[in-house]
């Protein structure tokens, strides 16, 4: 769908490739322009489906995937490749170190019917520092990786970045222009520096500098936990859409709230925090092997418990559990005694 045919509140992503044998439409329409951020151990299929059921999401990303390990993952049991047809449009996020061959990974993503490929150039995790990947990717390596990726895929390519190691406007904008020139179709900018923790407010205005410089769509990411955050971020950045990370784990209904209040979608925002928690457990058990569920439930609970005044009791109780059944029993007792947003 050409950009001028897109819904006024949607985000259109077009592949810059001139190939005609595309597995997907040359343009992906994301409506509303709200994406779930790639988060290790969190943005798996269970959370994606939960948010999809609550409504308001328009674009999905996988957890980050190593280009070296990806070709050997079994999609029937892998928690990283597990995905339903309803999770669409869907981008698989990959990371690659210098001199790592991306071709086998891309070929595998084609077989998985990927609708887009996202290159991780923004993660500051120590493991990626050692590899020289994520936010530690040197600009020349990033350029070669995007160039190689563009040469072997007809799919839309996105890249997720931070503002850099230090505040350097010229360097940042030059880097973004390079990504666009090499064939990136969508840019997601996290508004913090490489070494900044989440407690630091993101610089949404710096995302605006990128938006004014490139012609491709820009998604703003970082620090979005409420409808007001979404409005302020869009106002300061001028971004084409939003990517929500930890805020979506804390409040899976946040997408619906933003879709309704910011983008004027006719969507229900009613929710029950107890029912949502137990629905998440159901989805975990439906999607993953038993040994894969408990750790992911503990990670989710760490964030979700922030909805309650005494949520630390829930988080601590679940953290000490040895089974999902035990965790569910503790959660049931917790929800009997406390009230949270939307808890009847």
TrEMBL record:
- Pfam families assigned to the protein according to its UniProt record, in alphabetical order: Dus (PF01207)
Stored CDD domains: DUS_like_FMN (cd02801)
Q: Does the keyword Cell inner membrane apply?
A: no
| Keywords recorded for this protein, A-Z | Flavoprotein, FMN, Nucleotide-binding, Oxidoreductase, tRNA processing
Sequence ranges assigned to domain DUS-like FMN-binding in this UniProt record: 36-262
Cofactor dependency: FMN
Q: What's its EC?
A: 1.3.1.-
Q: Which parts form a coiled-coil structure per UniProt?
A: none
| Top-level lineage group | Bacteria
GO MF term list = flavin adenine dinucleotide binding; tRNA dihydrouridine synthase activity
Cross-referenced InterPro entries: Aldolase_TIM, DUS-like_FMN-bd, DUS_fam, tRNA_hU_synthase_CS
Keyword flag Plastid: no
Please name the catalytic residues of this protein: 123 (proton donor)
Where does the chain cross the membrane?
none
Residues at which FMN binds: 38-40, 93, 160, 190, 221-223, 245-246
Q: Say what the protein does.
A: Catalyzes the synthesis of 5,6-dihydrouridine (D), a modified base found in the D-loop of most tRNAs, via the reduction of the C5-C6 double bond in target uridines.
Family, per entry: Belongs to the dus family.
Question: What PANTHER family does the record tag this protein with?
Answer: DUS-LIKE FMN-BINDING DOMAIN-CONTAINING PROTEIN, TRNA-DIHYDROURIDINE SYNTHASE
The name on file for this protein is tRNA-dihydrouridine synthase
Species of origin: Desulfocapsa sulfexigens (strain DSM 10523 / SB164P1)
